[in-house]
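Duplicate of #3305? Posting structure anyway:
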Protein backbone atom coordinates (compact mmCIF):
# COMPACT_ATOMS: atom_id res chain seq x y z
CA UNK A 1 0.00 0.00 0.00
CA UNK A 2 1.28 3.47 -0.83
CA UNK A 3 0.25 7.10 -0.62
CA UNK A 4 -0.48 8.37 -4.14
CA UNK A 5 -1.75 11.86 -3.27
CA UNK A 6 -1.95 14.06 -0.19
CA UNK A 7 -3.25 17.64 0.06
CA UNK A 8 -4.80 19.65 2.87
CA UNK A 9 -8.26 18.31 2.02
CA UNK A 10 -7.61 14.94 0.41
CA UNK A 11 -5.58 11.82 1.14
CA UNK A 12 -5.52 8.96 -1.36
CA UNK A 13 -4.01 5.51 -0.83
CA UNK A 14 -3.63 2.71 -3.35
CA UNK A 15 -3.07 -1.00 -2.81
CA UNK A 16 -2.10 -3.43 -5.57
CA UNK A 17 -2.18 -7.10 -4.50
CA UNK A 18 0.99 -8.03 -6.41
CA UNK A 19 1.55 -11.12 -4.28
CA UNK A 20 -1.92 -12.50 -5.14
CA UNK A 21 -1.52 -11.61 -8.82
CA UNK A 22 1.83 -13.39 -9.05
CA UNK A 23 0.73 -16.54 -7.21
CA UNK A 24 -2.59 -16.73 -9.07
CA UNK A 25 -1.00 -16.28 -12.51
CA UNK A 26 1.76 -18.82 -11.79
CA UNK A 27 -0.67 -21.49 -10.59
CA UNK A 28 -3.06 -20.78 -13.48
CA UNK A 29 -0.23 -21.11 -16.04
CA UNK A 30 1.08 -24.35 -14.54
CA UNK A 31 -2.42 -25.86 -14.41
CA UNK A 32 -3.10 -24.79 -17.98
CA UNK A 33 0.04 -26.65 -19.07
CA UNK A 34 -1.10 -29.80 -17.23
CA UNK A 35 -4.58 -29.50 -18.74
CA UNK A 36 -3.20 -29.23 -22.28
CA UNK A 37 -0.98 -32.25 -21.65
CA UNK A 38 -3.88 -34.33 -20.29
CA UNK A 39 -6.16 -33.40 -23.19
CA UNK A 40 -3.74 -33.82 -26.08
CA UNK A 41 -0.86 -36.05 -25.00
CA UNK A 42 -2.04 -38.37 -22.21
CA UNK A 43 -3.67 -41.60 -23.39
CA UNK A 44 -7.23 -42.06 -22.20
CA UNK A 45 -7.50 -45.57 -23.66
CA UNK A 46 -5.37 -48.06 -25.57
CA UNK A 47 -6.10 -51.13 -27.65
CA UNK A 48 -3.73 -53.92 -28.66
CA UNK A 49 -4.59 -55.92 -31.78
CA UNK A 50 -2.28 -58.84 -32.66
CA UNK A 51 -2.25 -61.32 -35.56
CA UNK A 52 -0.11 -64.44 -35.93
CA UNK A 53 1.03 -64.33 -39.54
CA UNK A 54 3.15 -67.49 -39.15
CA UNK A 55 3.93 -69.94 -36.33
CA UNK A 56 6.99 -67.88 -35.41
CA UNK A 57 5.88 -64.36 -36.33
CA UNK A 58 3.40 -62.10 -34.53
CA UNK A 59 2.55 -58.57 -35.63
CA UNK A 60 0.64 -56.18 -33.37
CA UNK A 61 -0.81 -52.71 -33.60
CA UNK A 62 -1.05 -50.54 -30.49
CA UNK A 63 -3.57 -47.71 -30.71
CA UNK A 64 -3.58 -44.83 -28.24
CA UNK A 65 -6.57 -42.50 -27.93
CA UNK A 66 -6.62 -39.19 -26.06
CA UNK A 67 -9.67 -37.59 -24.45
CA UNK A 68 -10.45 -35.64 -27.62
CA UNK A 69 -10.56 -38.80 -29.73
CA UNK A 70 -7.28 -38.40 -31.59
CA UNK A 71 -5.51 -41.68 -32.29
CA UNK A 72 -1.85 -42.64 -32.52
CA UNK A 73 -0.81 -45.99 -34.03
CA UNK A 74 2.31 -47.94 -33.11
CA UNK A 75 3.49 -51.12 -34.83
CA UNK A 76 4.81 -53.87 -32.56
CA UNK A 77 6.76 -56.76 -34.11
CA UNK A 78 7.54 -60.05 -32.41
CA UNK A 79 6.31 -59.39 -28.85
CA UNK A 80 8.11 -61.65 -26.37
CA UNK A 81 6.10 -61.17 -23.18
CA UNK A 82 3.99 -58.82 -21.10
CA UNK A 83 4.67 -58.05 -17.47
CA UNK A 84 3.38 -55.68 -14.77
CA UNK A 85 5.73 -52.93 -13.65
CA UNK A 86 5.12 -51.84 -10.04
CA UNK A 87 5.96 -48.28 -9.03
CA UNK A 88 6.02 -46.99 -5.46
CA UNK A 89 5.04 -43.37 -4.87
CA UNK A 90 6.68 -41.04 -2.34
CA UNK A 91 3.73 -41.56 0.04
CA UNK A 92 4.01 -45.34 -0.06
CA UNK A 93 1.25 -46.00 -2.57
CA UNK A 94 1.62 -48.25 -5.58
CA UNK A 95 0.75 -47.93 -9.23
CA UNK A 96 0.88 -50.64 -11.87
CA UNK A 97 1.58 -50.57 -15.58
CA UNK A 98 1.67 -53.31 -18.22
CA UNK A 99 4.84 -53.40 -20.34
CA UNK A 100 4.95 -55.19 -23.71
CA UNK A 101 8.49 -56.48 -24.35
CA UNK A 102 9.93 -56.84 -27.87
CA UNK A 103 13.49 -57.39 -29.13
CA UNK A 104 13.61 -53.75 -30.22
CA UNK A 105 11.95 -51.76 -27.41
CA UNK A 106 9.40 -51.93 -24.63
CA UNK A 107 5.90 -50.49 -24.98
CA UNK A 108 4.16 -49.25 -21.80
CA UNK A 109 0.37 -49.25 -21.60
CA UNK A 110 -1.78 -47.19 -19.21
CA UNK A 111 -0.54 -46.34 -15.73
CA UNK A 112 -3.83 -45.67 -13.89
CA UNK A 113 -5.68 -48.95 -14.31
CA UNK A 114 -6.48 -51.42 -11.53
CA UNK A 115 -4.09 -54.27 -10.81
CA UNK A 116 -6.81 -56.80 -11.65
CA UNK A 117 -7.27 -55.32 -15.14
CA UNK A 118 -3.50 -55.27 -15.67
CA UNK A 119 -3.23 -58.88 -14.54
CA UNK A 120 -6.03 -59.99 -16.87
CA UNK A 121 -4.48 -58.21 -19.87
CA UNK A 122 -1.04 -59.61 -19.06
CA UNK A 123 -2.42 -63.14 -18.78
CA UNK A 124 -4.28 -62.91 -22.10
CA UNK A 125 -1.26 -61.46 -23.90
CA UNK A 126 1.19 -64.06 -22.58
CA UNK A 127 -1.24 -66.89 -23.36
CA UNK A 128 -1.53 -65.61 -26.92
CA UNK A 129 2.25 -65.34 -27.36
CA UNK A 130 2.96 -68.83 -26.01
CA UNK A 131 0.01 -70.61 -27.66
CA UNK A 132 -1.07 -71.10 -31.24
CA UNK A 133 -3.92 -68.57 -31.15
CA UNK A 134 -4.25 -66.61 -34.38
CA UNK A 135 -5.44 -63.26 -33.02
CA UNK A 136 -5.68 -61.16 -29.88
CA UNK A 137 -7.58 -58.00 -29.05
CA UNK A 138 -7.31 -56.37 -25.60
CA UNK A 139 -7.88 -52.82 -24.40
CA UNK A 140 -7.51 -50.56 -21.37
CA UNK A 141 -9.37 -47.44 -20.34
CA UNK A 142 -8.54 -44.66 -17.86
CA UNK A 143 -11.04 -42.04 -19.02
CA UNK A 144 -12.66 -41.72 -15.60
CA UNK A 145 -9.30 -41.02 -13.99
CA UNK A 146 -8.47 -38.32 -16.55
CA UNK A 147 -11.95 -36.83 -16.28
CA UNK A 148 -11.66 -36.32 -12.51
CA UNK A 149 -8.05 -35.16 -12.88
CA UNK A 150 -9.06 -32.53 -15.44
CA UNK A 151 -12.01 -31.50 -13.28
CA UNK A 152 -9.66 -30.98 -10.33
CA UNK A 153 -7.31 -28.96 -12.52
CA UNK A 154 -10.19 -26.75 -13.69
CA UNK A 155 -11.27 -26.12 -10.09
CA UNK A 156 -7.72 -25.13 -9.14
CA UNK A 157 -7.55 -22.88 -12.23
CA UNK A 158 -10.79 -21.17 -11.18
CA UNK A 159 -9.38 -20.50 -7.70
CA UNK A 160 -6.10 -19.26 -9.21
CA UNK A 161 -8.01 -16.98 -11.58
CA UNK A 162 -9.92 -15.57 -8.60
CA UNK A 163 -6.66 -14.68 -6.86
CA UNK A 164 -5.06 -13.49 -10.10
CA UNK A 165 -7.89 -10.99 -10.60
CA UNK A 166 -7.84 -9.62 -7.05
CA UNK A 167 -8.99 -5.99 -7.10
CA UNK A 168 -6.89 -2.86 -6.88
CA UNK A 169 -8.08 -0.81 -3.91
CA UNK A 170 -8.13 3.00 -3.93
CA UNK A 171 -9.06 4.62 -0.63
CA UNK A 172 -9.68 8.38 -0.61
CA UNK A 173 -10.37 10.55 2.44
CA UNK A 174 -12.07 13.89 1.71
CA UNK A 175 -12.14 16.57 4.38
CA UNK A 176 -14.08 18.92 2.10
CA UNK A 177 -17.11 16.63 1.93
CA UNK A 178 -16.34 14.77 5.16
CA UNK A 179 -16.41 11.31 3.59
CA UNK A 180 -14.20 8.32 2.82
CA UNK A 181 -14.50 6.37 -0.44
CA UNK A 182 -13.11 2.87 -0.92
CA UNK A 183 -13.09 1.79 -4.55
CA UNK A 184 -12.18 -1.74 -5.63
CA UNK A 185 -11.44 -2.34 -9.33
CA UNK A 186 -10.86 -5.70 -10.98
CA UNK A 187 -11.77 -7.74 -14.04
CA UNK A 188 -14.63 -9.13 -11.98
CA UNK A 189 -16.21 -5.70 -11.60
CA UNK A 190 -15.99 -2.48 -9.60
CA UNK A 191 -17.27 -1.68 -6.13
CA UNK A 192 -17.44 1.63 -4.27
CA UNK A 193 -17.98 1.90 -0.51
CA UNK A 194 -18.43 5.26 1.23
CA UNK A 195 -18.95 6.42 4.81
CA UNK A 196 -18.98 9.77 6.62
CA UNK A 197 -15.72 10.49 8.42
CA UNK A 198 -17.55 11.07 11.70
CA UNK A 199 -18.71 7.43 11.62
CA UNK A 200 -15.12 6.21 11.95
CA UNK A 201 -14.18 5.06 15.44
CA UNK A 202 -10.58 4.01 14.84
CA UNK A 203 -8.15 2.27 12.47
CA UNK A 204 -6.89 -1.20 13.34
CA UNK A 205 -4.03 -3.21 11.92
CA UNK A 206 -4.88 -6.88 11.56
CA UNK A 207 -2.16 -9.47 11.12
CA UNK A 208 -2.15 -12.95 9.66
CA UNK A 209 0.48 -15.58 10.35
CA UNK A 210 1.85 -17.44 7.37
CA UNK A 211 4.40 -20.23 7.47
CA UNK A 212 7.49 -18.06 7.65
CA UNK A 213 6.18 -14.52 8.06
CA UNK A 214 3.32 -12.25 9.04
CA UNK A 215 1.27 -10.03 6.74
CA UNK A 216 -0.95 -7.10 7.65
CA UNK A 217 -3.93 -5.06 6.53
CA UNK A 218 -5.68 -1.85 7.57
CA UNK A 219 -9.25 -2.04 8.86
CA UNK A 220 -11.61 0.88 9.40
CA UNK A 221 -13.68 0.29 12.55
CA UNK A 222 -16.95 2.21 12.51
CA UNK A 223 -18.79 3.42 15.59
CA UNK A 224 -21.24 0.59 14.95
CA UNK A 225 -18.18 -1.72 15.35
CA UNK A 226 -18.47 -2.82 11.74
CA UNK A 227 -15.04 -3.52 10.24
CA UNK A 228 -14.20 -2.38 6.70
CA UNK A 229 -10.83 -3.61 5.37
CA UNK A 230 -9.10 -0.96 3.27
CA UNK A 231 -6.94 -3.65 1.68
CA UNK A 232 -8.70 -7.06 1.77
CA UNK A 233 -5.42 -8.76 0.81
CA UNK A 234 -2.73 -8.75 3.47
CA UNK A 235 0.51 -6.88 2.75
CA UNK A 236 3.90 -6.05 4.28
CA UNK A 237 4.12 -4.47 7.73
CA UNK A 238 6.15 -1.36 6.86
CA UNK A 239 3.80 0.00 4.19
CA UNK A 240 0.72 -0.78 6.28
CA UNK A 241 2.01 0.94 9.43
CA UNK A 242 3.15 3.94 7.40
CA UNK A 243 -0.28 4.18 5.74
CA UNK A 244 -1.99 4.17 9.15
CA UNK A 245 0.43 6.83 10.38
CA UNK A 246 -0.39 9.07 7.40
CA UNK A 247 -4.14 8.54 7.88
CA UNK A 248 -3.88 9.47 11.57
CA UNK A 249 -1.85 12.57 10.69
CA UNK A 250 -4.32 13.61 7.99
CA UNK A 251 -7.45 13.10 10.08
CA UNK A 252 -5.81 14.23 13.34
CA UNK A 253 -6.74 10.97 15.10
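Output from current build:
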Amino acid sequence: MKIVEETRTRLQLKHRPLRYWFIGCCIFTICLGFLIYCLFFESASVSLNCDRVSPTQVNCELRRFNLLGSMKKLKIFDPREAYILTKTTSKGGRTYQVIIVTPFQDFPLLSHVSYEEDWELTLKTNNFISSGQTSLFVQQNQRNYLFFLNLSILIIMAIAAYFGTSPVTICTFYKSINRVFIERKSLRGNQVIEYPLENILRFDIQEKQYKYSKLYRVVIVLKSFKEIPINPQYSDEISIRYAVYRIHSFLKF
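Confirmed duplicate; merging threads. The helical segments are 18-40, 115-130, 143-164, 237-251. The mean pLDDT is 94.
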